[in-house]
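Collaborator request, handled under Task 6.
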Amino acid sequence: MAGMEGDIRTVDKLVDGCNATLDDRHMWLAPLRNTKVYAVTNREVAKCPNVVTVTFEGQVALGGVRLWNYTKTVERGVQELGIFCDGRLIYRVTSPTNP
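Structure tokens returned to the collaborator:
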């Protein structure tokens, strides 16, 4: 990310096997994006969210998914999350906006 060169919180930490930690060496940081963008042509609001895609090479049975929404400051963190499986929304949660 621009301005974050040398930061250790890179996307390879997403599945590095160390999950229950507060150590930045096992965290990843997504760019803070403005998810509401106004289209120039018709002034309608279009969402442009951060997206993480995990693709398996073959059929996989999942017993669960565990996510941590670690935020170092109150301005950061996931406010809306959707999980899709085979193109279908199977889970959605919205968190209140941080103060």
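The cover message to the collaborator said: "Residues 71 and 77 are 5 Å apart (CA to CA). The mean pLDDT is 76. Please let us know whether this matches your experimental observations."
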